[in-house]
Amino acid sequence: MVVESRRADRLEELRELNRLFLAYAQRRARQGRPCMGLPPRVARQLVGAQPETLERLAELPAALFRLDLERSQRMRDRAPPEQTMDRMRLSLALTILNSAWHMARERGFEARMFLNLSKTSLRRLRTTPLSGIPELAYTPDLLRCAFAECRLTWLALFKQDEPEAERMLTLIALQPKVASISGVPNRAILAAPRAYR
To answer: What is the pTM of this model?
Structure first.
């Protein structure tokens, strides 16, 4: 019972992070600015996306964003904070980093599964003191969209009329590094497990 409750709490935390990420990405899209790696076609869809669409996307049991902590470790010269990111992006980075920091220390497996963190990134979070989170947050290009190499995946996520959308979302979450879901047979999608909730 305790395990189920903790898992439910973790998933709700992940949904909150996804909501924040989508809200920021939509704002960038409406301003005609780059959306952290989202394909242009997806960014255009994001401009007019309704709240219910964003909520459905946020329900994906995996992060819609990626933390590039390996790159942050290599950064030496950083631009002044005011030139690096706007206030909303900084707030987003701090929130995601804080959540990832706690998750990495409490449940490393969950951090890797839900946030798709590499071993190096996980170790980076575990060895960074809480006071070091703000410095990490100022790293340029710290955040980017998930599935950046899988453009068709994002297009599929926006399909509201997909009859097997729930199972497809779960399949994508369970195989986050799949090159493209366009080649996944229908039988594979239909055989995917129920959404992880």
So the answer is: 0.78
